[in-house]
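#structure-requests
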Amino acid sequence: MRESVRKIGLIGAGLWAITEDKINELVKELVDKGDISKEEGKKAIQDMLEERKKQKLDLEKKISEKIQESISKTDAFTKKDMHELESRIETLEEEIQRIKNKEKMFFK
């Protein structure tokens, strides 16, 4: 029983890295040994799969945050920067065109 509890603890610690087949195999082993019932096994599988999904999403979020943090610390030129510059260029081009139109009217 103590070994089974240890296995479940280890599964929970790195659940995101374990395949569904491995989860099923480990739970089946616990059911076969009589450490848990079939119903408990089904519930354990469901809980572990949900936790696995949660851990995976959390890991992806943390990785994304670290990447964004690293990018913000560098002098990298981002898409946002490019869009801001494009917007400023458009504004300047419009202003230049207005000035040209005024000159044409003034110097006619």
